[in-house]
Design a protein that fits this description.
alpha+beta, 7-stranded antiparallel β-sheet
Length: 155
């Protein structure tokens, strides 16, 4: 019998959806040390201030905070170090081409376990203007009120 590949969410970046339009998403592996994986299993991760950069044809996630593992002593790495993302060459080339266009950036959306592997979902994003943010909030409020009215009518 084969093991089922379950996914378990570690960290989610909800603020990205408020600040950006997400055009495409990619699933990337991440290069980690052993104590970092143990810390992630405990759920100690934050991607609120993280961003993605491309250097010399490689994709890196910067400022992704992984708390040091409590029992890791000398094997712990810097919590905010630069970590390499693992993508196919064609995906990297596509991301590089898109980010050279005006207004595009790459942002981390969520970090999760896929089976025993740690994955990062990254998104190709365009920045929202202030009026776009207001419009999105208004739509969200209308949707919430409609759902509330619907619940009241069912009772």
């Amino acid at each position: 019998m084969a093991k089922e590949k379950g996914t378990r969410l570690i960290a989610n970046n909800k603020k990205v959806y408020h600040d950006y339009f997400i055009d495409e998403t990619y699933e990337a592996g991440i290069e980690l040390a052993g104590t970092e994986v143990k810390s992630l299993r405990a759920g100690n991760c934050s991607i609120k201030e993280a961003y993605i950069s491309v250097d010399n044809g490689q994709v890196y996630v910067n400022k992704m905070h992984i708390n040091p593992y409590e029992k890791g002593n000398i094997f712990n790495k810097d919590p905010l170090r630069k970590r390499k993302l693992l993508l196919h060459r064609s995906e990297i080339n596509k991301l590089i081409g898109k980010t050279k266009e005006k207004g595009y950036t790459i942002v981390p959306l969520k970090v999760y376990f896929s089976g025993s592997l740690v994955k990062v979902e990254i998104g190709l994003a365009r920045g929202k203007k202030l009026y776009d943010k207001r419009e999105a909030l208004a739509k969200h409020d209308q949707k919430r009120e409609a759902e509330r009215d619907f619940k009241v009518k069912l009772r």
